[in-house]
Sequence to fold (840 residues):
Amino acid sequence: MAFFTPQSGGSPNADEIASLYRIILYIALVIFVAVEGALGYALWKFRKRKGAVAAQIRGNTRLEIAWTVGAAVILVVLAVLTFVKLSAIQDPSNSGPEGAQLASDGVLYASAQRHLPPNGKALDITAVGRQYIWQYVYPGAAEADGLGAPYSYEELVVPTETTVSLDVVSADVVHSWWVPELGGKVQAVPGYHSYTWFKIPKPGIYRGQCANLCGRGHARMIITVKAVPPAQFEAWLAYQKQLIAEANAAAQAARAKLGRQIGAGQVENP
Amino acid sequence: MALYAPPVPQIVTHDVEPRTQARGWTSWFTTTDHKRIGILYMVTTFVFFLLGGVEALMMRLQLGAPENTLIPPQTYNQLFTMHGTTMVFLFIVPMMAGLANYFVPLMIGARDMAFPRLNAMSYWLLLAGGLVFYASIFWNPPEAGWTSYTPLSNAYFSPGGGQDAWIYLIHLTGLSSLLGAINLYATIVNMRAPGMSWGRLPLFVWAILTYALLLIFALPVIAAAVTMLLTDRHFGTHFFDPNNGGSSLLWQHLFWFFGHPEVYIMVLPGFGIVSEILPVFARKPIFGYKAIAASTVAIAFLGFLTWAHHMFATPIPEAILVFVMLSSFLIAIPTGVKIFNWIATLWRGTVEFKTPLLFCAGFISLFIIGGISGVFLAVFPVDWQLNESYFVVAHIHFVLMGGAVFTIFAAIYYWFPKITGRMLSEGLGKLSFWLMFWGFLITFLIQHVLGLDGMPRRVYEYPDVGHLALYNQISTVGSFILALGVLVTVLNVARSVKSGIVAGPDPWKANTLEWFTASPPPVNNFDVVPRVRSVEPMKDIRREVERRSGATVADPGRATVPAGAMQVGV
Fold:
């Protein structure tokens, strides 16, 4: 657990955010010590004593210009550092050689909002926030209109070493996706798409929770990301597809049976 | 002459005299005297402060242990909604209005506000807003947070009337603040004493002038937004409804377009208070008067360009992220300038550690931390980790509690003698300060770490992982120390209001005109309004008293100057 910096270790963007944070922290500590020190020194050194007379100074233009410019320079440095780091935080790298090959069906997006790796290939997963659970929809829809895509609740299963591009949406109120070790937050705003990405180097469980007040169950709207080796992921995904196919077949059989019982053609979609 | 020590001229102290004005409790309902309205404001808002504080303590109790079941989630959500709304709309903003009401006319040498009856109306609208809001605790208090993001606050997800009570609170307190702001602006622009040019305006009045302008520009936006929310909830409009062509993001933009200037509405008057108090207790003029006045105005202007830094995690274009980061950086410059100027004011002074000075010094040291954590939050990629977490909770409390509230306490200790004619106890004052200061640090410093550890805000419970339980316990213990400190000041006020040491007109040997009149001031404030010749008129007046009485003193045994001599500086 982090004490002085945000959590990291699950994804390069989280690592880069933590490293940018650390640089700012060092600069901030110097400023903090200098300014608090000057305040403490002034209070102690110039406390009222017998015979002391306060200097009647009303200002010093040079000094005032100097510290205004000084403050501005520090902020320019911070801005430059941010722009230097920005690309590594926002732009995903390609999946590693060990990553899932399934990523090849990733789609190129023209949107400026969605950042894709240089080769344009990423595993596209949609995270749907709803009171008070996250649903994850994976690529591989059975039908052309996107229906029948494999999905899961509670646990997001992803392959390691693979760039995952996450499309965060909401089905009801505003939620916020936050797994600290996998990078920053993005809000799930109904009617909008927010994007983030992560690339997990090694198998493991990463935990987070909804970060935007979404109602009485907000504190219980947890996120679990399970990273598994690509082969295991593909097996899991195939199993999910199989479960969906089986459920579909069972439903079709049930509908057909119902149709026979009450007359063909009368039941379209009970 | 040489046989006797030269007389020390000073302004005569005398007993606190009952005022000749109409007394009785009904007179409080009919008064249009800016001082009595100011007292109504201050007492009312302080009661709301105590209510908001109790709500905070209940939340800290719930969070004192992991997976605690003391308070159910619904109640917890109601508590933080009430707490945030109360502290912002019913305490800090109107408390500043109360202080401004009482002291702006006195400081600029006016006999009342420009529109006394409008002034009374401002107060009664505020009280109405507070009562409407708190009445909801008998039915369904609001539970969508003080930010009331849609769709959570719409009729489907928040069917209870509490959300409507919240909307009416925003309307009533908003109208109250708007009328008050127009009144303050008109008063400051038109009613200054002869000779009080803009360059001689006390810095507290500069801050209040800016506060008034910010309110006038920002409030209509939130008034429009909550009206749209009201019609969405009850009359079938779809301004914020994503299923019918509306935009829930629009609410966030409108709310924060008001909400960010609101932060400066809360802290700028505090900056003004500090700029008044430091020179008095350092016995030294304020360092860089022009820079402090100019930075107040600069902060107010930039405050309108930074609202989207509350929305870094929403789907907004990158150009806006960059723009808002840079504008938020820019605002750190005038803020830093103020802090440097305050430290320079203490530098080579003779600092007297009276309670008001302690609260000001405490404020500066805490505000430095709040300012620095604000820079982390302005860097948008870093903010993606920090926003909506306990890091932000810590940040807002460092700037609003350590910032605005500590200056309010400084103002209470500084101006209590003027309002009541009696001094507050220094011993209790210092005890209160140290309890509040350490209590504050224990409560909120550790919350930065809670945020970095991944604890989001507004959660009624958390799992027992890592050190979350320990950190939360530390915070809870701190909050009760802080509350004890507040309680000591309440006792101090209750004790001193009847039996404190008689203060006299100018107990601190201060710089501004409110100390020229008796304590408490008579109904018309000043019999004679002096001509103002500098930014520190009382210094000029004392010097003049000294010069004339020193030259003309006949009776060497007399140490004081007759009451009439107060006006010799005219």
Remarks:
- Helices of chain A lie at 12-45, 61-90, 230-262.
- Chain A touches chain B through 84 residues (CB under 8 Å).
